[in-house]
Amino acid sequence: MTTTEKPVPSSQVEPLVSGKTWEEMTEGSAFRTAKRTVTEADLIQFITWGGFNEPLFYDNSHAAAGGYSGRLIPGAMIYCIAEGLILQTNVLNGTGLAFMHMELSVKRPVYVGDTLHAIVRTTESRASSKPGRGVVTAHVSVRNQRDEEVLVFTPVRLIRGKDFTEAEH
Fold it and tell me: What is the Cα–Cα distance from 6 to 53, expressed in whole angstroms?
């Protein structure tokens, strides 16, 4: 089948998904991400890729001697999974400009087979010193399948505003 219609330029088609502007990220607003089960393959790929050459993550007897009851997941990996779950919501799709700062606390162990999700609550949202941008701080609580908090981080991000204008190239 052939068509004689001319293709529409991409610039004339609105994106299906658009992230929130900093003005839409009001203090106290919150959302929950989807869930994701951490697999053995995830652990092996992460510790290999990141160079986490630590027996705690690849030697069951070493981890058991430390009081752990399974294949332990590095805190850095928990953070990365949570950040990925946040990005998959599309809340920052096309509006995120920079990741500026973060504080992070690991609260309890995560093991292969645990299912994680995150609850993201905006704690501050304000205009930046540059027009068309804002600084948004959030509190991210990463939870396991028992709704136990396993990790907390507080990202500070630079986000586009409603009046953002793109830089000329």
Answer: 55
CA gap 67, 53 in Å, rounded = 19
The secondary structure element, H or E, covering residue 49 is helix 40-50
Count helices and strands (H / E) in the chain.
4, 8
What b/e readout covers 69-100, taking b as 16+ CB neighbours within 10 angstroms? eebbbbbebbbebbbebbeebebbeebbbeee
Give the tokens for residue 46. 């992460």
Q: How many CB atoms lie within 10 A of CB 144?
A: 20
Q: Any idea of the CA torsion for 45, 105, 59, 39, to the nearest 10 degrees?
A: -40
Mean pLDDT of all residues in 138-161: 98
Tokens 């219609």: give the residue.
5
pTM of the model: 0.90
Give pLDDT, residue 3. 65
Residues 6 or more apart whose CB falls under 8 angstroms from that of 62 comprise 55, 56
Q: Are strands 133-143 and 156-160 parallel, antiparallel or unpaired?
A: antiparallel
Torsion from C-alpha of 41, 47, 50, 56, nearest 10 degrees: 160
